[in-house]
Design a protein that fits this description.
Low-confidence stretches: none
Shape: elongated
Distance between the termini: 49 Å
Number of strands: 0
Oligomer: single chain
């Protein structure tokens, strides 16, 4: 199979576009890192928790304003 045919077949068979694949990959990376305990988070906050748990705890303890709405 020639390279051009291989590329055409790959584009036909692709289930995700490059942007969709990047979004899925970033979401997966966030899910893995947010639930994993990190020493730098533990050292800074002096707690034994994951970044996600730390963020949830801190939003309960402190006021977190809503982000600004996007300009229309």
């Amino acid at each position: 199979m020639k390279n051009k045919e291989r590329i055409k077949n790959g584009l036909k068979e692709a289930r995700l576009s490059l942007q969709e694949f990047e979004a899925v990959l970033q979401r997966r990376r966030h899910d893995l890192l947010a639930t994993k305990r990190l020493r730098r988070v533990e050292a800074a906050l002096r707690t034994n928790e994951s970044p996600l748990k730390a963020a949830q705890r801190l939003t309960e303890d402190f006021f977190v304003p809503e982000p600004p709405s996007p300009m229309k």
